[in-house]
Amino acid sequence: MVTLTSPETTAPARKRRGRGQVGLRMPRVYYVLPATVLIFFLVGYPMFELFVMSVTSVTPATLIAGGDWVGADNFVTLFTSQSFVDIALRTAIFGVIVLLIGLPGGLAAALALEKRTKFFNFTFGLIVLLWALPPIVNAVAWRFILFSEGALNEILLGAGILEEPILWLVEGALPLLSVSFVAGWVALPFAAVVFRAALLDVPKEQLEAAEMDGAGAFSRFLNVTFPSIAPTVYILSILFLSWAVRSFDFAFVMTGGGPGEASTTLPVLGYIRAFQLADYSGGAAIAVVTIVAVLLFALPYTRSLGRQADA
Amino acid sequence: MKRSNVRSRPGWVSYLVAVFLVVLYGSPLVFLILGSGQEPGTLPTMSPRSLLGFSPSNYVDYFVAYGNAMSLWNSFVIASGTTFLIMLLALPAAYWLARVSPVWSSILLVVIVFLQMLPMAAVVIPLYKVLALWGLLGDRIGVIVALGGTLLPWVLLLLNPYFRAVPRELNEAAAVDGAGGFRQFWSVVLPLTRNGAVTIALLTFMVTWGDFIYSVNFLSKSAQYPASATILGYVTAYSVDWPGLMAASVITTLPIFVIFLIFQRRLIQGLSAGAVKG
Question: Could you give phi then psi for residue B63, rounded to 5 degrees?
């Protein structure tokens, strides 16, 4: 929620069935034709248009007719600007923070809520509910909590912990950290769901044997639980990083990418260029770069899915 | 769900984590609800006093004064239209994909993973032009087909394992009984994947309900906006009307909240089943 948010999720692995049985007819191609047509016209062709926009000069007047060919100019302008380097770096920081909150947080939640008592089930349901809410709603709630006169400052000032409000969405690196935190906060419940399922596959006999041998809780986790869930950790890392690079809603709603460009990541930059500054070509070039960055994660992801299917 | 527990009771650390999570995930929701009931245009305060005076005026204003009377209906049309379109195309496609030769299926899965990772904030730029070319701007149909195309690869990826889990032998047996290709799909395979398909349809509905990027760019009149897009109107205004914004957020959330409560078990199980195997 997502979006998924953005929509983030993983595909289960099933044992591959025997191949090439005799007497089996393939379903005819018209089963897949309508889906292919929709994807071709609404994804494939727009991707082609995006590429064309990025190598031409498109203004609002020439949006439909198409602009003049400028080659790599838009990309050269982009890559040589200092702000692009900063924003690429911010995008990376954003991704790492999402990972650092989502993965250990999700694992901690899954471990803590492993026993299915009423209270733990309620807690689990609550965090998954918040994951499932529209991202824009979560962003609004956190914007209210974190803005200068918001709930967090009200509480901290009221309790006498702070004397001056902290400008979470304004000051220095705080806006980027705040937005990353909220994205990680949304990622955490998803990781918890995935880890809770993975924990069911941890070999119980080994855990019991380790306990009888006198291994402490931490040692049991390190030597039995973690090796068993390591593939899950790997796949979730790829998913979260690729999700973070394409994440748009939280920064856009909480800070609008600001102040200045303090919390702007690549997709936010491309969107603002295209739709708020009407620089379609510049926005398209940024979008192409964003897509390439996201797609770097697609290959390791499919490979790990394939490995699971073969297991 | 009973599991053999060697050690009978959860330790205090587990309770500490759980309480922490309840606060961390419960408070944004509580703030939204409390704030949405305060004086329009004021700065919501979370003092205990605010617990007492909950006024529904922001909710009335949302529908009447701000002209969002149709927003929930718009959300429903867009979300259910997109979900229907996607499931209609994705179910047969996922079936085909599960029956194609392993080489082809792994190549196609790479393509599908690529497609489902495309950022919406990037795709929206050329889509705006493409929909303009086809005269679909300012029309809900435009939003529906755009969302459908964008999310179809993701749904295919989610459906794939459910269809792969149906043994090919069932097709053979049905063929021996004289069932044609379509009957094999419709009466044999589809009923076996129903649980997964319903869960994924629910997820699709929830995701499309929350979209605002496509709606605010592809629709021309705010009277066409789904609830999620009306929120953005409050956010980008020069001064934020917090209680109004919070009421709009609660209104947008409520249907998702209800769906989640009804299907909670199915959604969580579906997510776990559809999740990575350790």
Answer: -80, -35
Are the CB atoms for A294 and A242 separated by under 8 Å?
A: yes
Residue A155, Cβ density class (10 Å: 0-12 exposed, 13-18 middle, ≥19 buried): middle
Q: Which amino acid is at B197?
A: A
Check A228 against B278: CB less than 8 A apart. yes
Tell me if B125 sits within 8 A of A287, measured CB to CB. Answer: yes
DSSP category for residue B64: T
Where does B71-273 sit in CATH, by number? 1.10.3720.10
pLDDT mean across residues, chain B: 87
Which residues of chain B carry a pLDDT beneath 70? 1-9, 48-52, 237, 272-278
Class of domain A81-310 as given by CATH: mainly alpha
Q: How far apart are CA A1 and CA B208, in angstroms?
A: 9
Summarised one tens digit per residue, pLDDT across range A142-174 is: 999 999 888 899 889 988 898 899 999 998 999
Q: Give A305's contacts in chain B (Cβ within 8 Å).
A: 109, 113
- What is each CA distance from B189 to A56, B98, B184, B200, B204, in whole angstroms? 49, 11, 6, 16, 21
Which pLDDT does position A85 carry in this prediction? 92
Q: pLDDT-derived band of residue A51, with 50, 70 and 90 as boundaries?
A: very high
**CB-CB under 8 Å, B228 with A136:** yes
Distance in Å, alpha carbon of B163 to nearest chain A alpha carbon = 10
How much is the pTM? 0.89
* Eight-state DSSP code of residue B49: G
> Which residues in chain B are classed under CATH 1.10.3720.10?
71-273
Taking the C-alpha atoms of residue A236 and residue A184, their distance in angstroms, rounded to an integer, is 13
B164/A14 CB distance under 8 A: yes
Distance CA A300, CA A285 (A): 25
Give the model's pLDDT for residue A249: 93
Question: Which residues in chain A are classed under CATH 1.10.3720.10?
Answer: 81-310
Q: How many CB pairs under 8 A join A and B?
A: 377
